[in-house]
Amino acid sequence: MPTEWNKQVRQAEDVARLMAPLAAALDREHFWTILLNGKNAVVGLNLVAIGSLTAALVHPREVFKAAIVGNAAAIVLCHNHPSGDPAPSAEDNTLTKRLCEVAEMVGIRILDHIVLGDGGSFRSLASEGMMGGSR
Question: How far apart are CA 50 and CA 58, in angstroms?
């Protein structure tokens, strides 16, 4: 993991700045979890799924596996939209709600779900009030 990753995640911009270079040239949707310790410092990055132009099949088991094994206190969900438009889809909102419900059960907080678009653009579902009760 690059040294610039060894920092705290304080806001959505921190996540977007770290993840935008990874997503910049991707032609398919990729879904990651960013693993955080109790002080919200990045301790790992997990590629959960690679999908198509418009979707990636994401299962809660795969989202939380690395977080549980890595003893993460919290995670941030992140995926790209190859279309370049970071606006969350209805499916993004539904998935986020479902994952927040699972997070409550397993005791791992989801701090945010960031959707990356072109040119460093992004949307934060937490900032837009679309997260469940896991924060």
Answer: 9
Cβ contact 35:66 at 8 Å:
yes
Residue 39 contacts residue 74 (beta carbons within 8 Å): no
Q: Which two tokens stand for residue 101?
A: 């419900």
The 10s digit of each residue's pLDDT in 21-69 is 999 989 999 999 999 999 999 999 999 999 887 777 899 999 999 999 9
CA distances from 39 to 10, 35, 47, 117, 131 (A): 10, 11, 22, 28, 20
Nearest to 110 by CA among 124, 99, 121: 99
Alpha helices (H) along the chain? 12-23, 60-69, 90-106
CB 94, CB 60: distance < 8 Å: no
pLDDT digits (tens, 9 = 90+) for 74-100: 999 999 999 999 999 999 999 999 999
Distance separating the N- and C-terminal Cα atoms of the chain: 26
How far is residue 19's CA from residue 14's CA, in Å, rounded to a whole number?
Answer: 9
What is the Cα–Cα distance from 123 to 74, expressed in whole angstroms?
Answer: 19
